């Protein structure tokens, strides 16, 4: 899999799964544009690290939930590198609690970043990729967008929304040689899941046939495949990356 010279935007690319995606895509030769929102130190440190390995990387601060910010993210990428070959919509947040306790703002913020943020970036990148007549869009959903989860009515709605968005956009852009797919990770060890209690982690572990929690690299390896020409005949799909947690 060779991504030499491909320009990739990774939203939320400085932390967790996104950081691993940025590093892995860069290691396969892609020019990576690392979007971040609050983690400027981590983003800059990652850019330095990649540059020290002779790789090309650039950081752009943007709140992807904001339409204008997402537009600027794509515009700045074009100004700097002239094209966008790969968009990985990875940025996401949680605000978990039972619906009886959930505030309206918990719902709105999670939808704004996870779902509208994905739509915002797709919208601005689609214009570019349509002109290019090529592109790969990879949206990070979640298994809970398929199976639901207690305490995540906001998050699972957003992640299910990403699946609908992915399928509709795949149909819209197929004629222009643009593939749009989603990845549904299960339980991946990052800051997002570090807050869960040991009991909950053990409960997940018991239901994972491969008997381990996921690593960010489990997701980033799949992103590389979906970014490469080896996946040119795959579009509109949701691929679970969950150790067999959900089989459907
Ligand atoms: P994480 O470590 O908490 O990282 C979240 C990332 O999202 C950070 O890089 C953060 O950037 C970025 N972000 C948040 N709000 C943003 C905004 N408004 N604009 C731009 N970036 C923003 O989470 P993770 O576990 O790596 O999750 C990555 C993705 O995988 C998410 O979409 C998540 O829902 C999904 N996922 C994770 C798991 C899991 O088990 N970990 C399972 C299924 C799906 P800053 O730090 O710069 O603010």
Could you outline the blueprint of secondary structure elements for this entry?
Layout lengths: L6 E4 L5 H12 L3 E6 L3 H13 L4 E5 L5 H15 L4 E4 L14 H29 L2 E6 L3 H4 L5 H21 L4 E8 L5 H4 L3 H9 L9 H12 L10 E4 L7
Parallel strand pairs: 1-2, 1-4, 2-3, 4-5, 5-6, 6-7
The structure holds NADP nicotinamide-adenine-dinucleotide phosphate.
Notes on the structure:
With 248 residues, the protein is α/β, with parallel strands linked by helices. The protein has one domain: NAD(P)-binding Rossmann-like Domain (Rossmann fold). It is built from nine helices and seven strands, in the order βαβαβαβαβααβαααβ. Strands 3-2-1-4-5-6-7 form a seven-stranded parallel sheet, sandwiched between helices. α1 packs across α9. The protein is globular and about 45 Å long. Bound molecules: NADP nicotinamide-adenine-dinucleotide phosphate (NAP).
In short:
By secondary structure, the protein is of the alpha/beta class. The chain has helices at residues 16-27, 40-52, 67-81, 104-132, 144-147, 153-173, 191-194, 198-206, 216-227; strands at residues 7-10, 31-36, 57-61, 86-89, 135-140, 178-185, 238-241.
CATH T-level fold name: Rossmann fold
Main beta sheet: 7 strands, parallel
CATH architecture: 3-Layer(aba) Sandwich
Order of strands across the main sheet: 3-2-1-4-5-6-7
In the predicted model, the low-confidence regions spanning at least 5 consecutive residues are none
Indicate the structural class.
Answer: alpha/beta
User: How do the helices and strands follow one another from N- to C-terminus?
Assistant: EHEHEHEHEHHEHHHE
Mean pLDDT: 98
Number of helical segments?
A: 9
Which ligands accompany this protein?
NADP nicotinamide-adenine-dinucleotide phosphate
Count of the separate structural domains: 1
Strand tally is 7
How does the overall form come out from the CA principal axes? globular
Q: How would you name the CATH homologous superfamily? A: NAD(P)-binding Rossmann-like Domain
Helix content: 40-55%
Cα distance spanning the termini: 28 Å
Portion in beta strands:
5-15%
């Amino acid at each position: 899999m060779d991504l030499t010279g491909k320009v990739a935007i990774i939203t939320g690319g400085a932390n967790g799964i996104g950081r691993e995606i940025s590093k892995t895509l860069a290691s396969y030769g892609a020019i990576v544009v690392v979007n971040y929102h609050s983690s400027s130190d981590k983003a800059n440190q990652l850019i330095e690290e990649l540059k020290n390995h002779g790789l090309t990387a650039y950081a752009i601060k943007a709140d992807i939930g904001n339409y204008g910010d997402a537009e600027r993210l794509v515009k700045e990428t074009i100004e700097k590198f002239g094209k966008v070959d790969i968009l990985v919509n990875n940025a996401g947040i949680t605000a978990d609690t039972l619906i009886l306790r959930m505030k309206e703002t918990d719902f709105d913020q999670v939808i704004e970043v996870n779902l509208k943020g994905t739509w915002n970036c797709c919208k601005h990148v689609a214009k570019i990729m349509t002109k290019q007549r090529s592109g790969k869009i990879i949206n990070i959903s979640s298994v809970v967008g398929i199976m639901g989860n207690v305490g995540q009515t906001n998050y699972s709605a957003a992640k299910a929304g990403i699946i609908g968005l992915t399928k509709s956009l795949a149909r819209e852009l197929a004629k222009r040689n643009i593939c749009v797919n989603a990845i549904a990770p299960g339980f991946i060890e990052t800051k997002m899941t570090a807050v869960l209690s040991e009991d909950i982690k053990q409960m997940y572990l018991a239901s994972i046939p491969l008997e381990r929690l996921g690593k960010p690299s489990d997701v980033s390896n799949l992103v590389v495949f979906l970014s490469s020409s080896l996946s040119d005949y795959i579009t509109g799909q949701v691929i679970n990356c969950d150790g067999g947690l959900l089989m459907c």
